[in-house]
From TrEMBL:
Gene source species: Oceanobacillus locisalsi
Transmembrane helix keyword on record: yes
Protein name as it appears in the record: Prepilin-type N-terminal cleavage/methylation domain-containing protein
Main location: other
Alphabetical keyword list: Competence, Membrane, Transmembrane, Transmembrane helix
Subcellular location: Cell surface
Coiled-coil blocks: none
Bilayer-spanning residue ranges: 21-38
PROSITE patterns for the chain: PROKAR_NTER_METHYL
Top-level taxon: Bacteria
NCBIfam families the record matches: IV_pilin_GFxxxE (TIGR02532)
Amino acid sequence: MKAKHRLKIIAESGFTLVETLVSVVLLGLVLTIFLTVFTQSAAINKTSEEVVDASYLAQKEMENLYALSQRTTDYRTAMEAAGYTEVEEDSDWMYYTFHHDDPETEDYYTQIRLEKDGADHLHRVVVEVYQQNDDAQQVKMQNVLAWGQEPR
C-alpha cells in the first residue's frame, strides 16, 4: 500500500518553488521595463508641452512687436506703452523683459533684444522665452522689423 501512495505523490503535477520564483522574477522584469517606458513617455510629453507653450508665447510676442513696428516710429515709447520693461541698454541693443500674467503662461517670462540702429530702418529683434522657476531658455526666435518708417 505504501508503494502505491509514493507513486501517486510522484505522479502529481504542479509548480515547484524554483518555477514559481523564476516566473515572479520574469514578471517583475517585464513590469519594470513597461513602467520605465511609460515614465519616459510622460516626461517627454511634458517637455514637449512646455516647448509648444513657450513657442506660442514667443510667436505671440513677435507678432505684438511687428504690430508695434507698423504703428509707430518711436520704439522706446511703444515698448513701454505695450508693457515691456527696459532692463538694460548697451551700444547696440535695447533689452526688455515681459512677465506673463495669464494663469496658463505665468510660468514663463520673455526677454526681448531690439537692435538700436538698424540699416534702412531694419532692426533685428530676438525674442527669448524662459521658464520662471529655473531660468531655462525654452525658445528663441529672431526676426528683422522695419521700425522707424512712417506708419501705414
